[in-house]
């Protein structure tokens, strides 16, 4: 079945440590997105990519980095510069061309906790 | 700029009663509107979308939404609520001809259906 897979489901980070969240899709989607979800704040866009080897900052990119070396993969690194990383992180993807709707398909999320 | 407002953080409804979850939006030009649902510790699932055409859009699980251009609203409705409808609901928007800019999400409305 086609879909979008995020791993791990739960992740614990120590102070000063970088961690990488994985997002892989086999839907042949062009664009991929990372959102952060905090209680009462909805979804806030961190980074997005519409083509391989190119990405754009979203509203809250500080303290995060991404890469898009393959169409299928869009990993997110939470760096030590991100002072409050505890949150639920969601990855999404969509087509940008062709017929049909351009709604997003979401992964199941990664819950990151600082310990 | 694009924006979405979900004025109610929480909506409570008795099982079997009709439910409404409100959404208003702001875009330049015509909107591309979505509703998504999120169950605990899961990603968002697509419910329905509006692009053009009939103002009443039917979606998954018996949900529907009414597009009102003059009031810039896209309220989610269901004639008879189920306990299993209890979840977090997100409205999202982008301008139809915005060159693939990312969707903007509301802060979410928690629906609680009481047996």
Which structural traits does this protein have?
heterodimer; A: 115 residues; mainly beta; seven-stranded mixed β-sheet; four-stranded antiparallel β-sheet; 0% helix; globular; B: 115 residues; six-stranded mixed β-sheet; 12 strands
Question: How would you describe the overall organization of this protein?
Answer:
The complex is a heterodimer of chains A (115) and B (115). Chain A has 115 residues and is mainly β. Chain A has strands at 4-7, 10-13, 19-25, 31-38, 42-51, 54-57, 64-66, 76-78, 87-94, 105-106, 110-114. In chain A, 0% of the residues lie in helices and 50% in strands. The termini of chain A are far apart. Chain B has strands spanning 3-5, 10-14, 19-21, 24-26, 31-38, 44-50, 56-58, 64-68, 73-78, 87-95, 104-105, 109-114. Chain B contains no helices and 12 strands. Chain B has 115 residues and is mainly β. In chain B, a hairpin with a 5-residue loop joins strand 7 (56-58) and strand 8 (64-68). The chains are: A mainly beta (115), B mainly beta (115). The A-B interface holds A 6, 31, 33, 35, 40-43, 45, 48, 50, 58, 88, 90, 92, 96, 101-109, 111 and B 9, 32, 34, 36, 41-46, 49, 51, 90, 100, 102-103, 105-108.
Distance between the termini of chain A: 36 Å
Q: Can you count the helices of chain B?
A: 0
- Specify Rg of chain B, calculated over alpha carbons: 14 Å
Question: H/E element string of chain B?
Answer: EEEEEEEEEEEE
Largest two-chain interface:
A-B, 26 and 20 residues
Largest sheet descriptor of chain A: 7 strands, mixed
- Give the helices and strands of chain A as they follow along the chain: EEEEEEEEEEE
| Proportion of helical residues of chain B | under 10%
Low-confidence stretches of chain A: none
Indicate the mean pLDDT of chain A.
92
- Choose one word for the global shape of chain B: globular
The Rg value of chain A, from CA coordinates, equals 14 Å
- Mean pLDDT of chain B, to the nearest integer, reads 93
* Assembly classification: heterodimer
Largest sheet of chain B: 6 strands, mixed
> What is the number of E strands of chain B?
12
Q: Count of DSSP E strands of chain A?
A: 11
Computed structural class of chain B: mainly beta
Low-confidence parts of chain B: none
């Amino acid at each position: 079945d086609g879909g979008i897979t995020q791993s791990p489901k739960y992740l614990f980070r120590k102070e000063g440590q970088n961690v990488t969240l994985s997002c892989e899709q086999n839907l042949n989607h062009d664009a991929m997105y990372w959102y952060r979800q905090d209680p009462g704040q909805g979804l806030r866009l961190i980074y997005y990519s519409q083509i391989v080897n190119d990405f754009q900052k979203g509203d809250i990119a500080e303290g995060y980095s991404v890469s898009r070396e393959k169409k299928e993969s869009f990993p997110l690194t939470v760096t030590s510069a991100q002072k409050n990383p505890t949150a639920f992180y969601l990855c999404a993807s969509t087509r940008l061309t062709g017929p049909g709707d351009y709604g997003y398909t979401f992964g199941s999320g990664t819950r990151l906790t600082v310990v | 700029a694009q924006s979405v407002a979900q004025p109610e953080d929480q909506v409570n409804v008795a099982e079997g009663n009709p439910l409404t979850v409100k959404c208003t939006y702001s875009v330049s030009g015509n909107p591309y509107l979505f509703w998504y649902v999120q169950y605990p510790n899961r990603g968002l699932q697509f419910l329905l979308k509006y692009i053009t055409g009939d103002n009443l859009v039917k979606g998954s699980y018996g949900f529907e939404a009414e597009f009102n251009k003059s009031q810039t609203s896209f309220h989610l409705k269901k004639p008879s609520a189920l306990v299993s409808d209890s979840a977090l609901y997100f409205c999202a928007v982008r301008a139809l001809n915005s060159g693939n800019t990312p969707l903007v999400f509301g802060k979410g409305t928690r629906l609680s259906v009481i047996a």
